[in-house]
Amino acid sequence: MDAILVVGGAGYVGSHACKALALAGYKPVTLDNLRTGHADAVKWGPLVEADFGDVETVRQTIREHGIVAAMHFGALSLVAESVAEPARYYANNVSGTLRLLEALGAEGVGRIVFSSSAAVYGEASGEPIPEDAPLNPINPYGETKRVIEGALRFIGQAQGLAWCALRYFNAAGADEAGEIGERHEPETHLIPNVLKAVRAGRPVKLFGSDYPTPDGSVVRDYVHVADLADAHVAALKFLAGGGESQPMNLGSGEGLSVKQIVAAAERVLGHPIPAEMGPRRAGDPPCLVADPTRAKHRLHWAPSRSHVDTLIRTAQAFEATRG
Ligand code: UFG
Questions:
Q1: Nearest residue to 78 (alpha-carbon basis) of 163, 11, 173, 156
Q2: What predicted TM-score, i.e. pTM, was given to this entire model?
Q3: Does domain 3-171+224-250 have CATH number 1.10.3210.10?
Q4: What is the rounded (10 degree) CA torsion for 180, 177, 235, 239?
Q5: Catalytic residue (choose from 12, 26, 121, 141)
Q6: How far is the CA of 188 from the centre of ligand 1 (A)?
Q7: Pairing status of strand 162-168 against strand 111-117
Q8: Which of 122, 139, 198, 203 has CB 3.0 to 4.6 Å from 274, enough for a Cys bridge?
Q9: 190 CB less than 6 Å from ligand 1?
Q10: How many helices (H) and strands (E) does the chain have?
């Protein structure tokens, strides 16, 4: 059973990747400092509580578990926070990751799947975005992801490290068995916030109705977290089979507006959801939709759970398990 180091395996996407790895016959070894992750989300392998920038502990973990490849989900990932505290984002997401790469190199680990983001593109044209579109991040979070993609190119070459940078669009939904789900504190994402507002019996706050989009609200490409997890396993196999290091978009290829998400939630929950329209949220590009052709062809990946009703149904089922 190949052991895979899952950095950030106690977090939202990382914990779903651990489940997918275990189902595919791998042993996921989570390394997480539990600052934003949850120990009880680590259910499919051991947990090492440490910072990923702690070179000695990472090296020891690699040796102890016979790690053959890594997945790296560990990052600070709140856009607004990154604007307020850019240095902390560079220190964690960039410096910490460079130390992680150093540890992988020192122990001869030759493959990594890195969590990148649609945030590397910045303001897009509105058309589905291919991987060779210009990278113009508009916030420090996206910039830290762009910098690490560049570092992977050069460090990967020098160190014999094959990599895939998976650029997620909007991760959503929860494990279909309800074992794990989205638990951010604070929660900033649209779908969990809609569900939380419904539970609390208050209107959901929507940010911006004057965007240059068909209904005036922001358009995003929502993709189920378990579909993302499957893409990580496929990327690992792609690299093991000699696949070329590269970035790949992970999205459904379809855009939904904020208002369409609320309408879908009303349909799935079976009742009206009161909404309060507010001003735009700073830093939100009007429209981000993936062109996912590359991942489809090279990873033989296609999202199977990313219909909006499934996203909302699974997120709601997980939300309902929480007291
Ligand atoms: N929104 C609301 N109300 C809420 C929460 C969100 O109206 O309570 C709106 C946002 O303003 C935005 C849309 O819903 O217009 C989607 O917002 P999310 O926060 O759910 O997702 P983002 O598109 O902002 O964020 C995603 C990823 C980030 C990544 C970013 C790149 O979650 O990690 O895309 O732009 F950086």
A1: 11
A2: 0.97
A3: no
A4: 90
A5: 141
A6: 7
A7: parallel
A8: 203
A9: yes
A10: 11, 14
Token reading at 223 = 């993709």
Amino acid at 92: N
Task: Answer yes or no: 89 catalytic.
Answer: no
Residue nearest to atom 2 of ligand 1 (CA): 206
Give the pair of three-digit tokens for residue 228.
């993302």
Q: Domain residue spans in the chain? A: 3-171+224-250
Cβ(90) to ligand 1 under 6 A? no
Tokens at 99, concatenated: 């130390």
Tokens coding 224: 């189920």
- Structure tokens of 36? 């934003």
Q: Whose Cα sits closest to atom 30 in ligand 1?
A: 119
Do the beta carbons of residue 120 and residue 76 sit within 8 Å? Answer: no
Q: How far is the CA of 64 from the centre of ligand 1 (A)?
A: 39
